[in-house]
User: Which sequence fits this backbone?
């Protein structure tokens, strides 16, 4: 295997290749990774700026044999991420995966179908620089999947693929977006069929899947951590645990992309700084009046807009306090050095 087949796209000295590994799973005690020649267990040191996540390329120390009798090494550096998949967490941005080409957003055709949740995922994908593709799963459970497909198509501009892992339909279409050397991740609520789809693509039951509780048709969080797999064609795919709720953050232009109808209307307002509330000549207000824009879509847009503004303000505050802390530390270090020098 080469670094390129692990998804690496940058230049790197060929004889340094053994110093580079890609993270395939993150456990509490260690990380699993692949170098161009073998599997290794990796350990962290406290000196890394950003903790490694699944999909990361890292530089590693010379190898040793660990307690599990496996080749092991220490992570010395996390290499620059070409894309990320992250969400706002309680303590700043929570990075979920990196170096992802395509994020497949699953929503199931039965009771879990939720366009607003798909939009929320889309905003996170765009912010991280990967390509979103929507998967409408479990189409075998509904009479008319085409109706739902059309609904998604009319509201979003992203590629949509309808599948049934049970019947094997749509699988080839998914594979066609997963070329050799590419990395994809499956995201969505618990129970939408992410692990079943991974198993279907792999042709083996590598992942445990779960029955859905009868009473509320909500999944029960069967997958507990992300893991990276190789398909036969050399594409990589990450199965991720289902998420309960999706908070959003990021650039407002992503939001407009997620609401193409709203974006289009806004270009027709009389005033370029229209607040779309009570100005004369507001195309949004008149579309709401004549029903060509639904109240619910507009409400959802406003809600996400507020949520993103709030998240962004919070993030910039954290950034500011982090940089204050950094400066304080640099200051303290400088003071300490001065003391040492004076003492000499
Ligand atoms: N009818 C039908 N059922 C499916 C299909 N795909 C998955 N299922 C079922 O849906 C349930 C949940 O599937 P999983 O693959 O475990 O779902 P998941 O998204 O990985 O869930 P978490 O790991 O909890 O996030 C299982 O009982 C699957 O057998 C499908 O295409 N059709
Ligand atoms: Mg799963
Ligand atoms: Zn307006």
Assistant:
């Amino acid at each position: 295997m080469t670094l390129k087949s692990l998804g690496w796209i940058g230049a790197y000295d060929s004889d340094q290749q053994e110093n580079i590994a890609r993270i395939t799973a993150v456990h509490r005690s260690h990380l699993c990774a692949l170098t161009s020649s073998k599997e290794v267990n990796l350990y962290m040191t406290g000196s890394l700026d950003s903790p490694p996540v699944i999909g990361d390329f890292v530089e590693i120390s010379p190898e040793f044999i660990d307690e599990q009798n496996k080749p092991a090494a220490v992570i010395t550096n996390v290499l620059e991420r070409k894309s990320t998949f992250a969400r706002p967490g309680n303590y700043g941005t929570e990075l979920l995966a990196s170096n992802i080409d395509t994020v497949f957003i699953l929503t199931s055709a039965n009771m879990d179908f939720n366009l607003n949740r798909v939009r929320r995922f889309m905003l996170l994908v765009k912010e991280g620089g990967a390509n979103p593709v929507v998967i409408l799963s479990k189409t075998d459970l509904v009479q008319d999947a085409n109706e739902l497909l059309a609904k998604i198509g009319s509201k979003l501009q992203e590629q949509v693929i309808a599948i049934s892992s049970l019947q094997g339909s749509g699988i080839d279409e998914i594979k066609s977006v997963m070329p050799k050397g590419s990395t994809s991740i499956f995201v969505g609520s618990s129970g939408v069929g992410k692990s079943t789809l991974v198993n279907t693509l792999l042709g083996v039951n590598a992942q445990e899947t779960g029955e859905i509780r009868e009473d509320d048709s909500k999944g029960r969080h069967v997958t507990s951590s992300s893991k990276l797999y190789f398909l036969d064609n050399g594409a990589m795919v990450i199965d991720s645990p289902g998420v309960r709720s999706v908070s959003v953050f990021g650039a407002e232009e992503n939001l407009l992309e997620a609401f193409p109808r709203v974006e289009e209307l806004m270009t027709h307002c009389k005033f370029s700084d229209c607040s779309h509330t009570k100005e004369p000549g507001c195309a949004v207000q008149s579309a709401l009046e004549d029903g060509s824009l639904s109240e619910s879509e507009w409400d959802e847009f406003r809600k996400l807009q507020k949520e993103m503004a709030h998240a962004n303000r919070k993030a910039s505050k954290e950034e500011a306090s982090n940089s204050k802390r950094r400066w304080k530390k640099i200051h303290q270090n400088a003071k300490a050095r001065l003391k040492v020098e004076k003492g000499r």
User: Anything to note?
Assistant: The CA atoms of residues 25 and 120 lie 25 Å apart.
